[in-house]
Amino acid sequence: xxxxxxxxxxxxxxxxxxxxxxxxxxxxxxxxxxxxxxxxxxxxxxxxxxxxxxxxxxxxxxxxxxxxxxxxxxxxxxxxxxxxxxxxxxxxxxxxxxxxxxxxxxxxxxxxxxxxxxxxxxxxxxxxxxxxxxxxxxxxxxxxxxxxxxxxxxxxxxxxxxxxxxxxxxxxxxxxxxxxxxxxxxxxxxxxxxxxxxxxxxxxxxxxxxxxxxxxxxxxxxxxxxxxxxxxxxxxxxxxxxxxxxxxxxxxxxxxxxxxxxxxxxxxxxxxxxxxxxxxxxxxxxxxxxxxxxxxxxxxxxxxxxxxxxxxxxxxxxxxxxxxxxxxxxxxxxxxxxxxxxxxxxxxxxxxxxxxxxxxxxxxxxxxxxxxxxxxxxxxxxxxxxxxxxxxxxxxxxxxxxxxxxxxxxxxxxxxxxxxxxxxxxxxxxxxxxxxxxxxxxxxxxxxxxxxxxxxxxxxxxxxxxxxxxx
Length: 471
Ligand SMILES: NC(=O)c1ccc[n+]([C@@H]2O[C@H](COP(=O)([O-])OP(=O)(O)OC[C@H]3O[C@@H](n4cnc5c(N)ncnc54)[C@H](O)[C@@H]3O)[C@@H](O)[C@H]2O)c1
Fold this sequence. Notes:
Rossmann fold, Putative oxidoreductase, GFO_IDH_MocA-like_dom, Gfo/Idh/MocA_oxidrdct_glycsds, eight-stranded mixed beta sheet, Dihydrodipicolinate Reductase, domain 2, NAD(P)-bd_dom_sf
C-alpha cells in the first residue's frame, strides 16, 4: 500500500513537473555520467536525436521523476541546471513524508579528524540523513550539537539503541573498531568502518562472517579503491597489459609525525598507532587490490624516527604465490610532501606501470604482444581522464565517492561491496605477518666468506633461503 501511494504520488509529481519544466531542446544532455554530479548516476535519457526533446528519468530510491532538459544548456550550464532541478525536488521532499522514509538514517561514532570529515560529507549527501553522532569528548559533542542540531551521545551503545538507524560510520581510534562493528552488526545495521579494520585479524574474520550472515553492506575506509587512477591500473593489470607481473614496489610517504610527541592513541601500538598499522595499511591494501594478497613477508624493518613506542617507517619484502615479489616502503615522518603520497610501480614481462592518485604511466612493449588494453610504448594519462565529479568535495573525490557508494548500496538494496570487511581482513593479515616478521634473523656480512657456488644457479644463497621458507 505504501508503495502504491508512493508510486501515485511521484507520478503525479512527475506530471506536474513536466508541465512546469517542459522546454524545447535539440539534443544531447547528460550523456556523460558526471555532467550533473552524483544524481546523474540514477538518470537516463529516454530519447535523443539532433532535434528531439530529451526526457531525463531520474530515479532516486527507484521512484521515477521525469524532467525535460534543454540541450542548449548542455555543455557549460547543464550541471547547474540539473542541480537546480534537484533542489526543487529537495524542496518537495519537505512536504513528502513518504520520500523522507527512503533516506538512509546514519549514526556516526568518533568525531575526530576523520569523523568530522565524514560528518561533513554525509550531512551533505542527498540520500542520507545523519540522525545521531557520538564521541566521548563532551566538548566536541556540545559544539557539534550547537551548530548542527544533530542529537549527540557520549555512549555509542545508547545511540545504537535509541536512534532508528539504518547504518553506522565508525571513525574512532582503531582499537575500538572490533567491538563497535560487532555491536552494530548485532543490531542489523549496515557498517562503514575506518581503516585498519581490526587489530586482530581473527576478530576481523569473525566480523566479516557475521556481516555476511546479517546480509548488510559492509565497507572499510580504504579510499584508494575509489581513486580513478588506481581503478584504471587494476583494469590494465586484469587485462594483462603488462604480461606476467614479476615484481612491484609500493611507496607511501607523508607528514604525520614530525617531532617527538606522545599522548595520543597514534603513539601506542596497542591502540593501532604506528606507521605500519595506521599508514602503511593503505599501501598494503592497494597492493592487495591490484594483484592479490602476498603469501609471505620477509625482511620487515620497523624503524623509529621521532616516536618512542611505535614505528615511523616500514620496509619489507613481499612474496606472492606465483613467484612474484614486491617491496614496500612507508614513512609517515616525511614532510617533503604536504599530504600522503602513495605510488605503485609494477614490472611485467610486457612492460611497466607507475601509478599514483595523479596519473597512470605505462610502458608497453608492443613486440611482446600488446593486448590492446594499453598504448604501445610510453603513455601517460592523468587523473582528470578518470575522475567523476562528486556532489561534495572534501580532501579528494575519493572520500566522498566511498561514502556515496556505501549509501547507494544501502538505498538500492545492493549487497555487493568495494573494500568489504572480508577484503580488509586480508590487509590486516599482512600487517600482522609483518609485525611478527620484524626483528627476525639477519645474515651478517662476513668479509672472509666465499660466495656459495650454488647461488649462481639459484639453488643456494639468500634466494633459496626465502623460497625455502615459503615452501
Ligand atoms: N582513511 C583515512 O584516510 C584516515 C585518515 C585518518 C584516520 N583514519 C582512521 O580513522 C580512525 C580515527 O582516526 P582520527 O584521525 O579521526 O582520530 P582522532 O583521534 O582525531 O579522533 C578519534 C575520535 O574518537 C573519539 N573516541 C575515542 N573513543 C571513543 C569511544 N569509545 N566512543 C566514541 N568516541 C570515541 C575521540 O574522542 C576522538 O574525537 C582511525 O581508525 C584512523 O586509522 C583514516
